[in-house]
Task: inverse folding
């Protein structure tokens, strides 16, 4: 009986090990398919490759594998002259799903006219894709999407930090460009949120370590890219954002609500630069009359009460704004998209209980990207697609990405930078 039990135990352990091995992503793989999308009234045929490419250590050992989705227009006459865009999302720890099926890719999440996801969750053609003018590859950094560390002995600090992230991704991009014969193509990086920190740093790393000179860097919803903005300027610059959110939620005075947002924002921006920043710079030396005057104008452009603004000494954090704007209605607004509404357990407090927009996005984007990659593109794996992956601890030290981007531009006169927010 003991022998039978021992045999069963060994078989069970062996089966578990095999299952664990099967759930490891292949270091290298590629599934190719074809599609087409109509952009600006013209049909654009394309080839799409869903696959993985290794990350090697300094000794040439495979330590990780990155998943990517690569789109190439197939009726382009000269591939060597066609631009290539290399795309990242942020986090750090976020997969490329958001840029992939919500912005630049040929497929996008099913949404209504207001941009809200609708059931059944899936994808449809994206008439605003950039594929008509450029090929594009979406990359999932380590532990995001299907990308994983393959060597259990690999040092996590190799991947998880401002500068480590930039270094290994630059190596990976160099290999990708070489394998796909894109050295003569105009090359662009695009990053969203923390992805702007990533691509700002990659511009100089690719240039200095791989002699890959880019034509452009696109920063979508940029971070500080290592340039600290503190004190009165940082405190004041949130106001135009508050104005836009309050306008959408119909929380501004009637005379502002009846205007287009494009007409309201310049007013809020002018007040911020010409009056709010100088007032906050006075700190505790501001007199009560000026403080009251500033609070009145801030209330007009933020939708918050003068009482709340005075209690806060004219400094309101975004977290508090998300909680306070619609507090009397028992609602909060979203962090990444202030159109979304949340309901907290209690109306008191300084910040929302959860991110209303992210909750909505996760329960719509998650099935959509899994359906698209697994069922449409036929990339078969038992690996979970990490919308957000574990990249802790993340080393934020020595973030000079903004300065690095400046230096990259100084050294490369062909490098252009675009900000989108």
Result:
């Amino acid at each position: 009986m003991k022998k039978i039990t021992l045999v069963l135990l060994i078989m069970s352990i062996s089966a578990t090990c095999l299952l664990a091995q099967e759930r490891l992503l292949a270091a290298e793989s590629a599934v190719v398919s074809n599609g087409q999308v109509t952009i600006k009234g013209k049909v654009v045929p394309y080839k799409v490759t869903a696959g993985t490419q290794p990350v090697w250590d300094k000794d040439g050992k495979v330590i990780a594998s990155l998943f990517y989705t690569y789109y190439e227009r197939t009726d382009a006459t000269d591939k060597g002259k066609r631009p290539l865009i290399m795309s990242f999302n942020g986090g750090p720890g976020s997969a490329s799903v958001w840029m992939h099926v919500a912005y630049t890719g040929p497929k996008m999440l099913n949404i209504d006219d207001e941009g809200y996801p609708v059931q059944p969750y899936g994808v449809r053609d994206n008439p605003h894709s950039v594929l008509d003018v450029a090929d594009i590859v979406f990359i999932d950094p380590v532990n995001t999407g299907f990308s994983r560390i393959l060597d259990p002995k690999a040092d996590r600090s190799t991947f998880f930090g401002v500068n480590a992230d930039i270094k290994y991704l630059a190596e990976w991009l160099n290999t990708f460009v070489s394998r796909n014969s894109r050295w003569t193509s105009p090359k662009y990086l695009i990053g969203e949120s923390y992805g702007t920190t990533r691509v700002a740093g990659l511009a100089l790393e690719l240039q200095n370590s791989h002699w890959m000179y880019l034509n452009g860097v696109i920063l979508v919803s940029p971070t500080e890219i290592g340039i600290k903005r503190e004190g009165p300027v940082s405190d004041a610059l949130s106001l135009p954002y508050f104005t836009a959110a309050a306008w959408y939620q119909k929380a501004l005075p009637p005379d502002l609500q009846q205007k287009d947002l494009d007409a309201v924002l310049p007013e809020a921006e002018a007040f911020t630069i010409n009056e709010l920043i100088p007032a906050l710079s006075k700190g505790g030396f501001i007199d009560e009359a000026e403080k009251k005057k500033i609070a009145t104008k801030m209330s007009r452009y933020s939708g918050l009460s003068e009482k709340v603004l005075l209690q806060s000494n004219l400094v309101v954090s975004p977290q508090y704004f998300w909680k306070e704007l619609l507090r009397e209605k028992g609602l909060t607004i979203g962090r990444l998209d202030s159109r979304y509404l949340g309901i907290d357990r209690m109306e008191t407090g300084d910040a929302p209980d959860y991110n209303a927009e992210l909750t909505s996005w996760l329960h719509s984007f998650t099935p959509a990207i899994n359906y698209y990659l697994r069922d449409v593109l036929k990339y078969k794996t038992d690996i979970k697609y990490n919308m957000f992956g574990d990249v802790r601890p993340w080393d934020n030290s020595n973030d000079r990405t903004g300065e690095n981007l400046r230096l990259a531009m100084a050294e490369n006169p062909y490098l252009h930078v675009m900000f989108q927010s």
About this structure: The chain has a mean pLDDT of 92. The radius of gyration is 25 Å. The longest strand covers residues 42-56.
